[in-house]
Amino acid sequence: MDGPAEAQCRTCGDAANLDIVPTECLKNMLIKLSTGDVGLGQPTDFAVYSNDGKLLLQKGHVIDSEGLLQQLYRLGYRKDTEAGGGGAAHAHAHAYPGGADPNALLFGTAHLDPVQPDKTPAAPKKTATLPNLQEKVEFFHLTRAGSADALRMELAGVIPDAALIARHARPDAPMLAAGTVYEARLFTGSRVFKFSTALLPDSAGPLGCYFLRYPESVSHAVVRKHHRVSTSIAGKLRTNEYQRPIVDVVVEDMSSVGVGISTGEDCLSVGQNAHLAMNLPIDNRHRLVSVVVEVRNRRQEGDLFKYGLEIVQLSDEVRRDIKDFVLESVAAD
Question: Across residues 47-72, what is the average pLDDT?
Answer without folding.
Answer: 78
